[in-house]
């Protein structure tokens, strides 16, 4: 591990200060960040590992596990109730929270399908979101080329062993996938991220936080240097009470997804009135399936309609040598999860 | 501020790069906690931090200031074995023994989570107040601890026996 200074922050303002982030002077073009090499530390389950491999080499670590670990109910004048989740809430605490289980079951399900119990006890919500999009070649400093690790070096995954890699939204520069399960649920649930940085406080739709690799695979997110996630907000979303998360993987526990599906479905008189759908394991970011959602609204809640919507979403998929199976697997998993939420017979052979 | 390790105050390391695992083994010579993969994949380094099971290899020791760490050495009272340690012997819950301290610390943390009602991947009903201590639940909840000798069945037997009788009374609390 490369030497670093360790500092601890109990609130967002202190964290920004310790990370060397100053308010940007309007119109002055001031960079606003003194120490771009500073990083925020949550549970450390990804960052400490990457530092040990010297893939991440921050000069300063600002420990932000002292930020809010509260989960609070929000509400507007119309009685719509959402949840505000502090950045430092541990994954286990979020999964076990009564209101999350009741109102957003897909989120509890997604969390407990990820990593191991020990890691879920350590990992914070913000840390989970900001774990690196990565693949085995990213870790292999000694033997592999990786554009994410070393810009312009080349990618050994594209023509290598790429069974785990992306089928949607990849680029010639990078085919890695975002490994989080929690984030797939947040993408489906219309979550909003609360940020603090050189430009003050701002909010970002969760689905705009992570980015596709393009020709800058080193950038996993749209965040600016020094930006700090202070909270994640879930909106009131009544249909999320009927939601599910299904993860398909090589072993039944403690493995990354080959494909995962987060879905919420509302059906009235046999017609899909509303739906939320997101996929994991298929792209550089949690993949919100807007094409399939649009295809489903107003359609009969039948397996045929689910198949058509899944096919529309995966129409743009581009397989690599080893991961072509994911295209069919993703479609079947979507159909299976939607069928389950629609109350269809689960004993059939669908997926 | 110090770190409480098995009840004794310990000074945090000057170098923030030191993991909790290395502090325990190299500085405090508490070699019960094992270094397996050193990258969060095997669970051999599992300890209890403020009562919650965590991986000491991915925890920086400086992050534990003001907190309480319990290792396998701190589980038994007055030199006696913890009941779970007895049960591991009874049920052949190990062969080489390298993963055992992590398995035992993990199981102690696990049973707390189960009684608290933390759901797992195999919990059928998220709304249920009490979660059954089924074999399926125990297996899933211990999946972060690998045993390359393949003693998993004995490990689950030992855990099931140790915590079977207190299950209902404590779940009702």
Automatic annotation (TrEMBL), chain A:
This is Xanthine dehydrogenase family protein subunit M. Gene3D superfamilies: 3.30.465.10, CO dehydrogenase flavoprotein, C-terminal domain, Uridine Diphospho-n-acetylenolpyruvylglucosamine Reductase, domain 2. The keyword Phosphoprotein does not apply. Residues 1-239 form the FAD-binding PCMH-type domain. The keyword Flavoprotein applies. InterPro entries: CO_DH_flav_C, CO_DH_flav_C_dom_sf, Diverse_Substr_Oxidored, FAD-bd_PCMH, FAD-bd_PCMH-like_sf, FAD-bd_PCMH_sub1, FAD-bd_PCMH_sub2, Mopterin_DH_FAD-bd. One of its GO terms (molecular function) is oxidoreductase activity. It holds the Pfam family FAD_binding_5. Keywords: FAD, Flavoprotein.
TrEMBL record, chain B:
One of its GO terms (molecular function) is oxidoreductase activity, acting on the aldehyde or oxo group of donors. The keyword Transit peptide does not apply. Keywords: 2Fe-2S, Iron, Iron-sulfur, Metal-binding, Oxidoreductase. Residues 1-75 form the 2Fe-2S ferredoxin-type domain. The keyword rRNA-binding does not apply. It comes from the Bacteria. Pfam families: Fer2 (PF00111), Fer2_2 (PF01799). InterPro entries: 2Fe-2S-bd (IPR002888), 2Fe-2S-bd_dom_sf (IPR036884), 2Fe-2S_ferredoxin-like_sf (IPR036010), 2Fe-2S_ferredoxin-type (IPR001041), 2Fe2S_fd_BS (IPR006058), Aldehyde_Oxdr_Iron-Sulfur (IPR052914), Beta-grasp_dom_sf (IPR012675). PROSITE patterns: 2FE2S_FER_1 (PS00197), 2FE2S_FER_2 (PS51085). This is 2Fe-2S iron-sulfur cluster binding domain-containing protein. It comes from Azospirillum doebereinerae.
